[in-house]
Amino acid sequence: MSTTISRRGLLKGIALAGAGASAPGSALFAKASGTADEPWTGYVICDSCNHVPQCGIRFHAKGNTVLKIENWTENPRNMLCSKGLSTLQRLYNPNRLLYPMKRTNPKGSKDPGWVRISWDEAYKMIAAKMLATREKYGPESVMFYAGDPKEPRPAIYRLARYFGSTTWCTESSVGCRSGCMMAEELNFGCPNNGGTPSADTKVYLILATNVWSQPLDWWKAIMAAKDRGCKIITIDSRRTKAAEIADIHLQPRVGTDAALVAGMCRVLIKENLYDKAFVEEWTNGFEAYKAYVEEFTPEKTEELTGVPAQLVVEGARLWAKGPGAFTLTTQSTSHNSNGVNNTRALLLLPIIMGYIDKKGGAAFGQGPKGLTMAAYGLHPTLSEVAWFNKPEQKARRLDREEVPLWAEMKDQVSPNNFPEWVRDGKVRMFCGWGFNVNIWPSPQEYAAAVAKLDFAFSSDYFYRPDSHDNLDIVLPAAMNYERFAPFGWYGPRIAVRKPVKPLGECREDWRIAFELGCIVDKPEHFFGGDPKAACDFVIRNLGGAGWDAFEAALPAVSKVPAPEPGFEKFRTGRMRPDGKPGFNTVSGKLDFASARAGKYGYPELPVFKPMMPLTKEFDLRFMNGTRKPHITHSKTRSDQPFLLDIENCLTIDMAPEDAEKRGIREGDWVEIRSPYGGPVEAKVTVTILVPPGLVGAQYGWLGKQNTQVLVGREVRDPMSGYSAYFEMPVSVKKLEKTEA
Ligand SMILES: Nc1nc2c(c(=O)[nH]1)N[C@H]1C(S)=C(S)[C@@H](COP(=O)(O)OP(=O)(O)OC[C@H]3O[C@@H](n4cnc5c(=O)[nH]c(N)nc54)[C@H](O)[C@@H]3O)O[C@H]1N2
Ligand SMILES: Nc1nc2c(c(=O)[nH]1)N[C@H]1C(S)=C(S)[C@@H](COP(=O)(O)OP(=O)(O)OC[C@H]3O[C@@H](n4cnc5c(=O)[nH]c(N)nc54)[C@H](O)[C@@H]3O)O[C@H]1N2
Ligand SMILES: [Mo]
C-alpha cells in the first residue's frame, strides 16, 4: 500500500465525487455518491490543526456528497484558513482508509499482507486480546494512546478508565504543550495560557506564540488592540510576524527565557515598578526569587540571552505600564531541557505585576460549570479524569519513577520510555487512535518497539507505513465531516454537528472506543456504543436542553448556563475547589517558588540552565518544528495536496551570515547532521526570520527529510520528560543537487 498520490488522479476524483458520478472499480466513489439529490446544508468542525475550540465549517451537500464549504458564520470561531479550506481534498482523497484490515504476514515482513475484515472480526480479535493481556499481565500492560487528534480523546479516556489501565497517554504527554501547562499549574494552580487583549489592556505580551499556529481571529484581536493604542511586547527567538508588529521585540537565544525574565524582574524590583501589595498578599517565595535575580544585571542578562541590556530594561518598563495581558499558547518553550522552568519564568511576568484576573489583565477563564476546563474542553463526567488522579491509580503508574512530578500532576502517563517498557515486558498491547511514530525523537526506536508488542492496532484516516507497518489491525476512522462527536465547545456555547455519513465502512472514533467498551466492559458505561447519546449526556449534565434541541437550533450555536466570569475570583474562593480564597497551589498562593517541585529534588525556583553547548563541528542551533500556515505536523502533506503547491519539501531558514559563511544560497540543498543522527536533506531559505546561529525548520517531512532523527532521546526536560526538539546542535553543509 502506498501513500503517494497522483495529483491528477486526485483532482479528477474530486471532480467525479462532486458531480455525484461513480468511478468504476473505486469503492470510494461508489459510496460517495448518495442516492438522494436534494441539496442540504450541514455543519461540522474543522480538525486540521486541533486548536481547541476549533473553527466551524458550513457545507453544502447533495445526497451524501459535500460539494462546497464555507465559514460557519454563526459559530464563534468562523474564519477558515488554507488548511481548513483544503479539507475536502482529504475527505475525498482516494488513498483514504475505508475498511478494517488485518495483517497476514509476520511482523517485520516487507509486505504486511493486509486483508479486509469485518468490524465484527476486528472487534472480536481486539477485545479477546485486551482481556487476555489484562488477565495475564495486569491492566497497565495494555497501553491506550491518541495522537494529536484531540477529538477522540474523551471517549478513549473512558475506555481506559473502565478497562482499568492507567497506561493512557497522548501526543500531549509525549510533547505538545502539556509541559507548558505543567508550568501554568505550578505557578497558578490551574492551567491558564492567557488570552487575547481586552478593551482595558494597555500592554500585551506575546510569549513565544507563532501567529501561524493560531486561529485567524487571534490575529484580528491583536491588530484591533494595537489600533486602540495597546502596546505589544513579543518574546520570541525568531523575528516572526508577531515580533514585527511589536513595540518591543525581545529575542532571547533558544532556551534562555529564565535568564531573560530574571533580568526583567530585577529591573522591576530595583525600580520599584512591581505590584508590592499584590506580591505580598497573593504570592509565595518572592524573597527567594528576589535574591536569585540579583546577579542578573542587564549586562549579564545580555551575555546569557543575547538580548541587548538596554532592551531588557525598556521591556520591563513598558510591561509595567499595564494593566497587561499575555498569551502563551506555545508548545515550543517546553521543548528544551529546561522547558518547564523557562515557561514558569515567563509566567512570573504577569504575577509580579499583579495582572492576575484583573480588568485589562490576564483573565482566568472557566468552563461552563466548574472552575477549570478538563480534557480538551470536554466534560469530566465523560472523561472521568478524577479516576486517573486517585492515589491508588497514581501508585500503579509506569512513569512514576522517570517523571515523578509529572506523574503526580498529570492524568496521562509520559510514554517517552515506551521502548524500554516494551523491552522490560511492562507494556504488551497497544490500542491507538491517530498514532504517528514520527512525533518522537529517533522514531526508528519507537517503531521497533511497536513491532515487538504482542498485539497492536490503531485507527486512522490514512495508512501511514512508518507507523502502521507493524500493527496487527488498522481501523478506518470517520473524518470531521462524518461524525457527531465531539461537539464544539466555546465557553458556554456549544456547537453540535450535522454531518454526512462516513465513506466506506469508516466509523467515528468515539463509536470505536465505545463499541469496544461494550464488549470488554458493560454497555451501560458506554452509552450502548452511541456517540450522540454520549454528547447528549454531557450537554444535559451542563444544564443544556440536549442534543435534539441544539440540533434544531442550527445554524445558531446554543448556550448552556454559566456563572458570570467576574474579576479577581481568587478573593472570593472561586479559584480553589475547597472554596477558600487564594489559588489551587500547595502554598495556596501564586508560586515564585514551588514546594511541589522541590519535593522531588527539582529546583523550587524557575532557574536558568544553559542549553547543550554548540561545538566546532555542530555550530548551529536547530529549531525543529515551528509552525507554518499551510502545514500541520506530518499530515497535511499527502492528505491535502493543494498545500504542496505552497511548499513541497523540507525547507530550513538560515540567517544570511550563516548561509554566506558556508557558501549556501537561497534554494540550495543541504545536509544536516547532529551528534545523534543524520544526514537529513533540506532546501534553504535565506532569511532574517532567524538570527545568526539558529536554523529554523518544520518537522513532519518523512524519509530523507525526517528531522526527528537529529534529536537525541536522552536529552530531555527532567520535569516533563519532554524531548529537547528545539535544542540540538547541528552542522549544515551544501549538497551538490538541485532536486528532492
Ligand atoms: N499551522 C499550524 N498551526 C498549528 C499546528 C500546526 O502544525 N500547523 N499545530 C498545533 C499544535 S498541536 C500546537 S502545540 C501549536 C503550537 O503553537 P506554537 O508553539 O505557537 O508554534 P511554534 O511555531 O512551534 O512556536 C512558537 C514560537 O516559539 C518560538 N520559540 C521557540 N523556542 C523558543 C524559546 O526557547 N524561547 C522563546 N522565547 N521563543 C521560542 C518560535 O520562534 C516560534 O515563533 O500550534 C497548533 N497550530
Ligand atoms: N521535532 C518536533 N516534534 C514534535 C513537535 C515539534 O514541534 N517538533 N511538536 C509536537 C506536537 S506539539 C504535536 S501536537 C505532535 C503532533 O502529533 P501527531 O500525533 O503527529 O499529530 P497529527 O499529525 O495531527 O496526527 C497523527 C495521526 O493521526 C491521524 N488522525 C488525524 N485526525 C484523526 C482523527 O480524528 N482520528 C483518527 N483516528 N486519526 C486521526 C493522522 O492521519 C495522522 O496519521 O508532534 C510533537 N512532536
Ligand atoms: Mo501540539
From TrEMBL:
PANTHER family: OXIDOREDUCTASE YYAE-RELATED, TRIMETHYLAMINE-N-OXIDE REDUCTASE. Belongs to the prokaryotic molybdopterin-containing oxidoreductase family. Residues 96-516 form the Molybdopterin oxidoreductase domain. Pfam families: Molybdop_Fe4S4, Molybdopterin, Molydop_binding. Keywords: Iron, Iron-sulfur, Metal-binding, Molybdenum, Oxidoreductase, Signal. Transmembrane segments: none annotated. This is Tat pathway signal sequence domain protein. Residues 45-93 form the 4Fe-4S Mo/W bis-MGD-type domain. Residues 624-725 form the Molybdopterin dinucleotide-binding domain. One of its GO terms (molecular function) is oxidoreductase activity. CDD domains: MopB_CT.
